Design the sequence.
């Protein structure tokens, strides 16, 4: 199985900061990589799919990049609503299986 | 508007079989490239993909759980059912039904159903 490693596990930042979260795959997933935001007690929300495609309705301050084994989620200017936990997720097109990262909790500094 | 809703028991005993039903509206499993998956999340932990059912009746399972899982169409054409055998307290989690149409990303999620495994 492909393993996904997110870093950092916890990130403290302030409103207006630019933040980056990294996700590394144990082997190439091409661009089958998605990012989600989850708030306590809620289902995750899709932000980015195919590594860099912004889901409809998601603010443009969110962006994704990368391919192969290294990916990043960037929030250009943190807003109060952005403090949440973020997950990456890969799709292994050969094995037809999905794996999530362990999550990054974005906290207010 | 696409919606998915999970239903099933809130409490199961160890060794029992869990059956969860996903009832959806606004989508059809006969549409080419339509896929519905089950994902779970233990309290305070990360998400874990479990199984997927495709429009052409193809089925795929998590390697670590495949011997315990079965995914199938439900009695109604707008349902997908997941069964998990031999439940254990470590299977305590919120179970989500999700749609996968965005390049193998999950764009629509059900509200989730919490399942506790306890004697």
Sequence:
């Amino acid at each position: 199985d492909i393993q996904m490693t997110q870093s950092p596990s916890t990130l403290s930042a302030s409103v207006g900061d630019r933040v980056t979260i990294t996700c590394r795959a144990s082997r190439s997933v091409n661009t089958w990589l998605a990012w989600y935001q989850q708030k306590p007690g809620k289902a995750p929300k899709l932000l980015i799919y195919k590594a860099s495609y912004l889901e409809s309705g998601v603010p443009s301050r969110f962006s994704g990049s990368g391919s192969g084994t290294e990916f990043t989620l960037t929030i250009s200017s943190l807003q109060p609503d952005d403090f949440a936990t973020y997950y990456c997720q890969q799709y292994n097109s050969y094995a037809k299986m999905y794996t999530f990262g362990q999550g990054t909790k974005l906290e207010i500094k | 508007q696409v919606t998915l809703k999970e239903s099933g028991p809130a409490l199961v005993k160890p060794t029992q079989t869990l059956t969860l039903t996903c009832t959806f509206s606004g989508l059809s499993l006969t549409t080419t490239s339509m896929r519905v998956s089950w994902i779970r999340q233990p309290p305070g932990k990360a998400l874990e993909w479990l199984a997927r059912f495709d429009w052409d009746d193809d089925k795929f399972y998590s390697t670590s759980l495949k011997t315990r899982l079965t995914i199938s169409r439900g009695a109604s054409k707008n349902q997908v059912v997941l069964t998990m055998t031999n439940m254990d307290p470590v299977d305590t989690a919120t179970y989500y039904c999700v749609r996968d149409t965005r390049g193998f990303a999950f764009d629509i999620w059900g509200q989730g159903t919490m399942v506790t495994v306890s004697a």
